[in-house]
Each structure stands twice: as structure tokens, then as C-alpha cells.
Amino acid sequence: MKGYEIHMGETAGEGKPFSIITQRNSAAVKREDGAVSKDGRIWGTYIHGIFDNDEFRTIFLNNIRAGRGLPEKDVIAFKDKKGDCIRVIAEAVRTGIDLQKLFDMIRPESLRY
């Protein structure tokens, strides 16, 4: 799993670590990160972007689905879906908002298309 770390403070309390960080800035390390509650239902981590990892996100969501008796789903490529969603939003803005009027309100003389 890949992500980036924003770390302020220390994790304290009982429970096991969420993960073991094995690489940081291209250097090998071995450091515990975050925590998981005793019952496994609460997780905390300093690693951001973990849900961008297709396999991790799919396993995480399929575990929730299984707990609710729902069928598993296949892996969806985040980068492909993200692009599709951005295109849908961009089209909704283009067709639903008078952009020229908005630009005129912001900077009337400088924005023309």
C-alpha cells in the first residue's frame, strides 16, 4: 500500500498498530503506524491516500459488505473512475452555469471566451 504521511503527535493506548511502515523517502524503515481497536472496528493512521490504492480499498469495502451480507465487488481502478467523475462534473458545470456571467462578475474586462 502506498500513501503519504502527515504526522503530528503520537499514537497512545491499547490495541495493535494499523500498519508497519517499511519505506520512507526511498529509505528502508520499520516503524509502527496508527492503531486498530481491540474489536478491529476502529482504525487510525497517519497515512493519507490509502483509499487511492485499488486493492486496499476493495478489500476494505468488501469486508464491510460481507458484514452486512452483501456480495463482494471487483476492483475498480481509482484513476480511471476519478477521470470519469471529473468529466461528468465539468460537463454539469458547463451546461448548468452561465460561465460568462460568472466571469463577468469576477473580472469583467479580463475574462472573455
Task: Describe the structure concisely.
The protein is an alpha+beta fold. It has helices at residues 54-67, 78-96, 99-106; strands at residues 4-5, 19-24, 27-33, 35-36, 43-44, 47-48.
Whole-angstrom Rg: 21 Å
Oligomer: single chain
Order of helices and strands: EEEEEEHHH
Helical content, roughly?
Answer: 25-40%
Question: What structural class is derived from the secondary structure elements?
Answer: alpha+beta
Please state how the strands of the largest beta sheet are arranged side by side. 1-6
Features:
single chain, 113 residues, alpha+beta, two-stranded antiparallel ribbon, 3 helices, extended
Protein architecture, described:
The protein is of the alpha+beta class and 113 residues long. The protein has a domain at 4-67. It is built from three helices and six strands; from the N terminus they run ββββββααα. It has helices spanning 54-67, 78-96, 99-106, and strands spanning 4-5, 19-24, 27-33, 35-36, 43-44, 47-48. The longest helix is centred in the last third of the chain and has 19 residues, at 78-96.
Annotate the secondary structure layout.
Layout: E1 4-5, E2 19-24, E3 27-33, E4 35-36, E5 43-44, E6 47-48, H1 54-67, H2 78-96, H3 99-106
Antiparallel strand pairs: 1-6, 2-3, 4-5
